[in-house]
Amino acid sequence: MLVNVINQSKHALPSYQTSSSAGMDLRANLEEAIILKPLQRALVPTGLFIELPQGYEAQIRPRSGLAYKHGISIVNSPGTIDADYRGEIKVLLVNLSDQNFTVEDGERIAQMVVARHETVEWQESVELTTTERGAGGYGSTGVK
Ligand SMILES: O=c1ccn([C@H]2C[C@H](O)[C@@H](COP(=O)(O)OP(=O)(O)OP(=O)(O)O)O2)c(=O)[nH]1
Ligand SMILES: [Mg+2]
After folding, report:
1. Per-residue model confidence (pLDDT) at position 56
2. 3-state class (DSSP) for residue 95
3. What is the CATH number of domain 4-116?
4. Which residue, 34, 49, 97, 99, could crosslink 103 as a Cys pair with Cβ 3.0–4.6 Å?
């Protein structure tokens, strides 16, 4: 799909790393590096502005390598970019490790997956259909 984008960053547009990747890696666009102390969070700019077609959203997800090696995650994971959002895409990183982590300019900090979504219209009802699960949840199907 074609998506309008304005790239005000110093870096190339995000791209898929392999032909069947679901996500495109997003790079930090920084004047200077950010040092994240343990449990500290920061809203990291990307310099990207996009215009998604109606009925689509972009999800901002953590990168597993950063999470595994450095404990870097995203506070609001997955972040949601609405189709009508025209501001800069930012990534809310958090350092879940016990050591400082430096976010460098140009570093791949997250990945963005574009997905379709439905728009719900409520149909108010007095009862719902009966199912095998019923109201069971939170581990109701087994001890572990
Ligand atoms: O990780 C994120 C999450 C959101 N946004 C932008 C795009 C999104 O369309 C907008 C609003 O996000 P959200 O609805 O999650 O935030 P909110 O706290 O509900 O704010 P608002 O009242 O503006 O909707 O902020 C980002 O740039 N990065
Ligand atoms: Mg909102």
Report:
1. 98
2. strand
3. 2.70.40.10
4. 34
